[in-house]
Amino acid sequence: MDVYNKIFDELITRDVKSISMHSGSELLDGHKIKLDFFEKKVVVDLHKRGVSYLEKDSKGGSLKVGESLDMHSASLILHYLQNADGSPLTGRWIPYRELPGGLFYWQTIPGVLDTVVKKYESNGAGFLKRAYEIGGQKYDRFKFASVIYPFKMFPILMILEEKDSEFEADARVLFDSSAPHYLKTDVVKLIVVYMVNRLCR
Fold first, then answer.
1. Which of 29, 35, 50, 166 is deepest in the core (most CB within 10 A)?
2. What domain range includes position 74?
3. Is residue 88 part of a domain?
4. What is the pLDDT of residues 17-76, one digit of tens each?
5. Sign (positive/negative) of CA torsion 86, 88, 90, 93?
């Protein structure tokens, strides 16, 4: 709760147009920021200090403010808005260890991915299906790979290798080299954990 409130305290002192522009989001009513979070659309209300899903109305037309996000999900979104500086995506994929300070934590990443490996070790098609359900797109350079977008300017490339007669199953995550311009390295790990949990539901 402290982190959540501190980020809101900072965001409300900054130029909201710049926050929106730098994060690739949309400004509504001068104090609300609309952005994508995985496959959903959310709105951050700086006046009410809240983060909510945007849902279609009963007629399936325009979007309206719906259920509030849980504190953890909302905090990830606030971290993104706090850190985004508008740097362009580079299209160059790097491993976690190449992020600032990533060498210290990178050995924990395979353990985070173990859940995906165990669930989809012989079901690459199932992995892709679930990745698409949470907003992922096909990445054709590998048989089972998807670029998943927690945020518009923060893609994650996830690659699954199925188990075969010679090798055990494996999974990797790579990040656009612009990633440090959008999230701090420790929060990147939290996003990976969050993504894995969603993939394995």
1. 35
2. 2-83
3. no
4. 999 999 999 999 999 999 999 999 999 999 999 999 998 776 666 778 889 999 999 999
5. positive
